[in-house]
Structures are given as structure tokens and as C-alpha cells.
TrEMBL record:
<dbReference type="InterPro" id="IPR029062">
    <property type="entry name" value="Class_I_gatase-like"/>
</dbReference>
<dbReference type="GO" id="GO:0005737">
    <property type="term" value="C:cytoplasm"/>
</dbReference>
<feature type="domain" description="DJ-1/PfpI">
    <location>
        <begin position="4"/>
        <end position="167"/>
    </location>
</feature>
<dbReference type="InterPro" id="IPR050325">
    <property type="entry name" value="Prot/Nucl_acid_deglycase"/>
</dbReference>
<keyword id="KW-0378">Hydrolase</keyword>
<keyword id="KW-0677">Repeat</keyword>
<dbReference type="InterPro" id="IPR006287">
    <property type="entry name" value="DJ-1"/>
</dbReference>
<dbReference type="InterPro" id="IPR002818">
    <property type="entry name" value="DJ-1/PfpI"/>
</dbReference>
<protein>
    <submittedName>
        <fullName>Protein/nucleic acid deglycase 3</fullName>
        <ecNumber>3.1.2.-</ecNumber>
    </submittedName>
</protein>
<dbReference type="GO" id="GO:0016787">
    <property type="term" value="F:hydrolase activity"/>
</dbReference>
<dbReference type="Pfam" id="PF01965">
    <property type="entry name" value="DJ-1_PfpI"/>
</dbReference>
Amino acid sequence: MTFRALIPLAEGIDDLQSVTLIDVLRRAKIEVVVASIESRRMLTCARGTRVTSDGMLVDVLAQHFDLIVLPGGMVGVQHLAAHQPLLQLVKDHAAAGRLFAGIAEAPAVALQTYGVLRQRRMTCLPTVSHYLSGCTFIDQPIVVDGNCITAQGSGATLELALTLVEQLCGKGKRAAVAGDLLV
């Protein structure tokens, strides 16, 4: 069985988080679709890294994904939070019980705006936890609450990616990917 993951990107998204999530999920043989919410495929991340998406989010809205994961980076996350088609996609995805994840600013800004964190245990970059309401902030690098997986920041990116591999593909695949990375 092939699992599919969607990673939506916007101008100003975090470089390390985006690239690491894409890389590790692909190492696990998960089909990763990197989709731009902007009007172009080439995007500039927060620290100047240029990333070319696989396509446009509007073109994949009707497709099935087993996981949607939002990287952090405040400017990019603010764009993601304001994007109505992505908001609806994540809400529907979460309501269907499928995995969704966010790291750094993404849980507190985008996932909070989407309304999918209510009554959940979660984490985010502690400096943006003041955006939260209706959920319980846990000061840990990674928090898994049912189909919601959140992480605090760039230092937790590799652990988040491996946790997502485990959630989709099992502990054996996580161990194999971690071993290949010498983690």
C-alpha cells in the first residue's frame, strides 16, 4: 500500500522544516505532493532557499491524502492560515480521522485558525502559544493526540518526520529510515 502525504507551501515557509519533512517522508516511500498555495510553483523560504513545488494546491484539492503536514515559518504560516481552500481541506481531512500535523508556528496559527485543535493536547513553538485557545499546550518536542501530531520547532523536525513515518507505515519502517539516516 502506498501512502500519500500533502505538504502545502507558501512564500516565507521555514526552509529546514519543509525540506526535511519532504525528504524523510520520501525516504519512507511515501508519495509526497508538495503543493504551492501561491500563484506560482517556485517559492522562496524564510531564509532564502528556493523550492519548486510539484504543483498548485487548487489542482490537488479533490485528491485523497493520508496525511497533511504544515511546516512552520511565521510569514508562510500566516499565508497558509488565510488560504480558504486549504482551511476547508484540513478541516474535512481531520473530521474524516486522517492524520494531520504541524510544526513550530503552524499549530498555533494555522491549525488553530482551522478549528481542528479543539479539545486536543498539542505543542507548538512556545513563543506563539498565546494564539491558542480551546486546546491544551504540552511543553514537549512532539505531541501525538489521535490523528493530530504537532511539534515545537526546527530542532524537532527530524523527530516529527520519523513520527509521521511511524504513524503511517509502522515502527519497522521508522526504524529502517532512522537507521539509514544514522539516527
